[in-house]
Every structure is written in structure tokens, then in C-alpha cells.
Write a structure and sequence with these properties.
By secondary structure, the chain is an alpha+beta fold. It has helices at 113-120, 123-134, 152-155, 189-198, 208-223, 242-253, 262-265, 272-294, and strands at residues 20-23, 36-40, 45-53, 61-64, 68-71, 85-87, 93-95, 98-100, 103-110, 138-139, 143-146, 158-166, 172-174, 180-188. The chain has 3 domains: 4-95, Beta Barrel (Barwin-like endoglucanases), CATH 2.40.40; 99-196, Roll (Vcp-like ATPase, Chain A, domain 2), CATH 3.10.330; 208-292, no CATH class. It has 8 helices and 14 strands. A hairpin with a 4-residue loop joins strand 2 (36-40) and strand 3 (45-53). The longest helix is centred in the last third of the chain and has 23 residues, at 272-294. It holds the Pfam family AAA. One of its GO terms (molecular function) is ATP hydrolysis activity. This is ATPase AAA-type core domain-containing protein.
Length: 295
């Protein structure tokens, strides 16, 4: 278990750009400045931020830090797709009160499966680390906290924290040393993007029968009702759609998809190719073990 250096977590004075929305005072009331608000950026997401006055070139736009994104229930979004420069309108701003939370239910997204396994062995230390990380932020029910902007030693190799529920109901929540943290799920970043958020399902024409066949095999293997082997070989000339077919099916079924290019495995140094292949299979095996545990 890696040692937790809680002093490595930056103080608020060192994180002046975190969870801030910089907007012109020509389009907002003075009463809204230095207040936490929910800024609607789409039908599925809002940014929870603190409005700070600043002279900007275009009054209609605001510069924001999307560290905390509130998403619609059961509709996770990719937090890295949120733009930093967004149009702002008074109708899109919802003032919100901030209260101290006594209890939070969260899921944790780690940089990779290795760190997921390390931290999952001790949920008490993990809860302690989460408590110290979240003191930098104000959060809400059904929100994603993006920690990727912090250094790895500061965020303990945690990329995101998903806040499922707090005891603050419709208010924003602030964490303190007495807040109880309940971790209900841990996952790696690749699991989060592909299995939770989901890959984009690209259109695929003229291969309906192949898609149906491949989906039926994977579904049967998932349910344990198939006696087929767990390996499928697709054969066809270059450009026939093999990769597109696999990507389409993986996105549709929210399966984890590893895109491996043979040139990435070959290395001129003696033993390096074998090491890369071993590391790749080890990562896949760890993901399979995590999936079996979650089931």
C-alpha cells in the first residue's frame, strides 16, 4: 500500500483556478458574484462553480473550470468534453446554498487497474484520502469531480470521484473532517469511459447480420450460457470493416475495447517486446478479475 501524504493535497490558496467561473459584470448582478451557482451547459449537465468577476473580451462568454459537473441521474457524461469557454445567460444560472454534509455516497475512478487494486484493499484509507481531496470542492448529488488537473501525488492516482448522494438534498455540499464517506464502487478510467459513460456508437451500414451474430455470441458468453470458446477471429481484407465492426459492437454493449496495433508491441531492445506483451495481458487480466468481482 502506498503511503498517503495528506500534506501533498494543495490548500485552497494554491488552487485558485479550481471550480471558478469568470464572467463579466456587465451581464450579471453584483449579488451573484462570489456565490456558488449551477450553470446549465446542456440538457444533461450543469457546472457547479463560484462566480468571480473579471473583465473579458466577450461579454456573452464566460471562462470556467469544469471541475465539478452535475449530470442527469443515470446519464453519466464524459467530463473532458466540457468546454472551458461557454456562452452565458442569466436564465442558465441557478443560485444554490452550500451546507456541510454528514454523509456522502461515492464511486472512485482510478488512473489504472493497478492503483484500483492497491486502494481497494483498504477502504478506510481510501475514504480518508477522498475526504481530504473533496475538501477542495463544493459538490452536489449526481456529480463528477475531475481530479485530473491535480498532480498524481496530490490526487493519489484518482482521476474522478462520482458523488451519488449526499444528505444535503437540493443544496450543494461541503465536506469536513466529520463527513462519513461510503464507497460503493471502484473502477479504472478505461472502465469508466467505456463501460459506464459508454463509447460513441458509430453508424454501421451493410453489416447488420454480422453485428447481430457478434452481439449474440458476446451476450451468451456474458450470461455463461454459451459453450463457445471465448475467442473470436475476424478474417477479411484491409478496409473491409473488421475494426469498425468490433468498435460498434463494443460501444453498443458497453464492453471494454482495447485497440492494439502490432507496431506498438515490437521493440528493437532485447526482451522489450515480450515485456510489453506481458504487461498488456496483465492489464487485461486485471480488468477481467475486476469485472468478475463486480458481478
Amino acid at each position: 500500500m502506498e503511503t498517503i501524504f495528506l500534506s501533498n493535497i494543495p490548500d485552497s490558496k494554491d488552487t485558485t483556478m479550481i471550480q471558478k467561473l469568470y464572467a463579466s459584470d456587465t451581464i450579471l448582478d453584483n449579488s451573484q458574484f462570489n456565490q456558488y451557482v449551477l450553470l446549465k451547459i446542456s440538457d444533461k449537465a450543469k457546472i457547479l462553480c463560484k462566480i468571480i468577476p473579471r473583465v473579458i473580451c466577450t461579454n456573452a462568454f464566460a471562462s470556467c473550470d469544469p471541475s465539478v459537473i452535475k449530470h442527469a441521474p443515470q446519464k453519466l457524461i464524459n467530463p473532458l468534453t466540457v468546454k472551458l469557454e461557454i456562452p452565458i445567460n442569466k436564465e442558465h444560472i441557478e443560485p444554490i446554498c452550500v451546507t456541510n454534509s454528514k454523509r456522502m455516497v461515492v464511486s472512485v475512478v482510478f488512473k489504472d487497474v493497478k492503483h484500483q487494486n492497491i486502494w481497494s484493499k483498504n477502504f478506510f484509507k481510501l475514504a480518508d484520502a477522498i475526504r481530504h481531496l473533496l475538501r477542495l470542492f463544493v459538490v452536489h448529488n449526481d456529480c463528477i469531480v475531475n481530479l485530473k488537473r491535480l498532480k498524481s501525488k496530490q490526487n493519489f492516482n484518482i482521476d474522478f470521484i462520482l458523488i451519488h448522494k449526499t444528505d444535503c438534498k437540493n443544496n450543494a455540499a461541503r465536506i469536513n473532517s466529520d463527513t462519513t464517506i461510503m464507497v460503493i464502487k471502484t473502477m479504472s478510467t478505461i472502465q469508466f469511459y467505456q463501460a459506464e459513460v459508454g463509447l460513441e456508437v458509430l453508424p454501421l451500414f451493410g453489416m447488420e447480420s454480422q453485428v447481430k451474430c457478434l452481439k449474440s455470441i458476446i451476450k451468451a458468453a456474458r450470461n455463461g450460457s454459451s459453450s463457445l470458446c471465448n475467442m473470436i477471429l475476424l478474417i477479411g481484407p484491409s478496409g473491409s470493416g473488421k475494426t469498425r465492426l468490433v468498435t460498434h459492437v463494443a460501444a453498443s454493449l458497453k464492453c471494454i475495447h482495447f485497440d492494439i496495433i502490432s507496431t506498438d508491441l515490437v521493440n528493437a531492445d532485447p526482451g522489450s517486446t515480450e515485456s510489453v506483451i506481458r504487461d498488456l495481458f496483465k492489464r487485461v487480466q486485471l480488468l477481467l478479475e475486476q469485472d468478475s468481482k463486480s458481478e
